[in-house]
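[#protein-structures] MJ: dropping Tryptophan-associated transmembrane protein here for a structure pass
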Amino acid sequence: MDSPLRRPTAGLRRTLGWAQLALTAAVVLGAVLVGHLVQGQVDARTAGADRPSATGTAVLPEVAATAPMVGSPVSSPSVTEGGAVGDGALAALGTLLVGWTLVASAGTIGRRRLDDRESERWAVEWARVEPVWSGRVSGDF
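AK: finished. C-alpha cells for Tryptophan-associated transmembrane protein:
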C-alpha cells in the first residue's frame, strides 16, 4: 500500500541510486584495468631494448649517423618517477576522476529532472487544494 506522503518518484529515485552504484563499480573496475594495461605497456617498452629478437640478438634501436637529433633523448619510457607502477596508478586515478565525474553528473541530472517533475505535480495539486485550504472557497476538492 502506498503512503500518501511517499513521493510518486520514489521508485525512480531508488533505481537511479542503484544505477549509480553499479556504474561506480564499473568505473572502479575500468580504472583498475586501465592502470594494469598502462603498467604493462610501460614494462614492455622498458624491457623492449633488452629483449632478444627471434634471431637471438638484442633488439636495439638504430640511429643513423647522419640523422639529426631533435630535442633530448628520452631517458625512460615512464611518465612519472615511479616507473610503470606510477604510470599505471596515474592512469587509473585519471580514469577514476573522469568516470566518477560522469556518474555524479548523470545522477545529478536525473535527480534534477525528477525534482522538476515533482514540482510540476505539486503545483497542479496545490492549485486545486489551496483555495479550500485558505478558506477562499468551501467545498470538496
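MJ: nice. The mean pLDDT is 79.
AK: one more thing. Residues 21 and 90 are 23 Å apart (CA to CA).
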